[in-house]
Design a protein that fits this description.
about 35% helix, Purple Acid Phosphatase, chain A, domain 2, about 270 residues, single chain, globular, five-stranded mixed β-sheet, 8 helices, alpha/beta
């Protein structure tokens, strides 16, 4: 499929929970005029603790660079897990633009504010230590989720997120997500926009909040989702829980020095 725009976030390259093969299959079957990488693309938090970088994660980087080389506009908006890349705002690496946030105008003229969203997360702003503790516990849940789904695949069943199910059974987590969604909609209004597109909380959603459009593109460790805009202006969530084709044979290329620096900064 070819779309006007595709938003993906929270890929968390550099972690065992990253579903890189599903994302590679999604990128193989979908094109867009614009790709928005809405934060937490590389997980610097986990890479600082232990280095994990399989070939499939490198293939994701190469696939996105190829999209940019072939004419798609690729915009990278760093999140909290790859916050070190924020020092590169306004620069381009391998035709990938690094921005703090951007305004996307839809086919029907709606102005959408695109940002990762962590700046408006109270835990990240006022209790970052708690975010690190939560990240450790979350990583353990994803570890269990990974082997749970390996078993499902062997049984001929599709991907299903045990970790997401457990998270949304917790009342406080549901309340936190609702608060976050309303804060993001309010911030979009303050910026004179018609809506917001963000990531961060790993819950794909399109809904109206107080007259503002709230869109979250989800993630690629739990929900395996992307937000897309069709050429008629329709916004929808794509769930990619089946791998539709054989893994693509991606030629190995040497990353440009600027891209190597960007990846290193996300780790160091």
């Amino acid at each position: 499929m070819h779309y006007k725009a595709i938003w993906i976030s929270d890929i968390h390259l550099g972690t065992s929970g990253c579903q890189a093969n599903y994302l590679l299959d999604f990128l193989k079957h979908n094109e867009a005029d614009k790709f928005y990488l809405v934060g937490d693309i590389i997980d610097g938090w986990r890479l600082k603790k232990s280095f994990y970088w399989p070939q499939s994660h490198n293939d994701v980087v190469q696939k996105l660079l190829r999209k940019a080389r072939k004419g798609s506009e690729v915009i990278y908006i760093p999140g909290n897990h790859d916050e070190s890349a924020r020092q590169f705002f306004g620069l381009s690496f391998g035709d990938v633009k690094v921005e703090e946030d951007v305004i996307h105008t839809t086919v029907d003229g709606r102005r959408l504010w695109v940002t990762h969203g962590d700046q408006f997360d109270g835990v990240m702003q006022y209790a970052k230590w708690l975010a690190y503790v939560g990240d450790t516990l979350y990583s353990f849940i994803l570890y269990v989720n990974r082997y749970f789904n390996m078993l499902r695949v062997k049984m001929g069943l599709q991907y299903w997120s045990l970790s997401q199910y457990l998270k949304h059974q917790v009342k406080n987590a549901v309340s936190y997500i609702a608060d976050f969604e309303h804060i993001m909609a309010r911030e979009a209004r303050l910026r004179g926009c018609d809506g917001v597109v963000c990531g961060h909380i790993h819950k794909a959603e399109i809904r109206e909040i107080d007259g503002l459009l709230y869109c979250n593109d989800g993630d690629w460790v739990e929900s395996l989702t992307a937000l897309v805009e069709t050429h008629t202006g329709e916004l929808k969530i794509i769930h990619w829980t089946h791998i539709k084709g054989e893994p693509e044979d991606i030629p190995q290329i040497t990353l440009q020095p600027g891209i190597e620096s960007l990846i290193k900064e996300a780790v160091l």
